[in-house]
Design brief:
- It is built from six helices and five strands; from the N terminus they run ααααβαβαβββ.
- A hairpin with a 5-residue loop joins strand 3 (127-130) and strand 4 (136-139).
- The protein is of the alpha+beta class.
- Helix 1 (3-10) packs across helix 4 and helix 4 (38-52) crosses helix 6.
- The protein starts with a helix and ends with a strand.
- It is globular.
Length: 154
């Protein structure tokens, strides 16, 4: 799928304000889609549409969820770093998601298992997921030995 097709489909499930920080949204608005990696968006689409099949939330200001998608140099989580910080979030390749009706570390472990089981063949690019957390962190940074799906501990 080309980027325009991916964007058209992903916009059925997510608004740009969910996927980028407030600073980027205020500066670029809808044009902020340009900062999100195509492989990340393609994987996000497969996970949301084909595997999870229920609402997923990244930034959700009404629920107090901030800085969970693209982060910029003005974000508190970035400004407080005392050494160089180049995470997948900074590069537009990651998001931390809540899933409607799923909670806790155990609930998210089940979702990660579901992704491993059902998305292996459908994911267009390798996927990393953070283990042992109560949210679903997904990113498209390189995986060890080119594994299709890799779970890591931060």
């Amino acid at each position: 799928m080309d980027r325009n097709t991916i964007l058209k489909e992903v916009k059925q499930y997510f608004d740009i304000e969910e996927l980028v920080c407030d600073h980027v949204l205020a500066r670029w608005g809808e044009d902020a889609w340009q900062f999100l990696d195509t492989g990340y968006l393609a994987n996000l689409l497969v996970i949301r549409r084909d595997v999870i099949q229920r609402p997923m939330y990244c930034n959700n200001h009404k629920r107090g969820l901030h800085q969970r998608g693209l982060r910029c140099n003005l974000c508190e989580m970035v400004k407080e770093k005392d050494r160089p910080y180049l995470s997948a979030h900074i590069l537009g390749k990651a998001g931390d998601f809540s899933i409607e009706g799923i909670s806790g570390i155990g609930g998210m472990a089940g979702m990660r298992s579901r992704i491993k089981l059902l998305a292996q063949a459908a994911l267009p690019v390798p996927l990393r997921m953070e283990a042992d957390v109560s949210w679903l962190h997904i990113d498209v940074m390189p995986t060890p030995s080119g594994q299709k799906i890799y779970e890591f501990k931060a």
